[in-house]
């Protein structure tokens, strides 16, 4: 059984879409390789004010989602 032939959306090259291929299904293996960035490897330390503001923003998001999901339409 042949693998389906796809066209990469980045480089427009044809490639065979194989099972367990890492990355995106619409990108060739060369274009699917994750970019090495120093931001993701180095952890950003947050001070107390940043942690507090992030916690408050997360709580506001949770409250908004709760209101949207469970409000009564009466």
Automatic annotation (TrEMBL):
Annotated spans, Disordered: 31-74
Feature: compositional bias, Basic and acidic residues: 41-62
Highest taxon of the lineage: Bacteria
Name of this protein: Uncharacterized protein
Naturally occurring in which organism (per UniProt): Edaphobacter dinghuensis
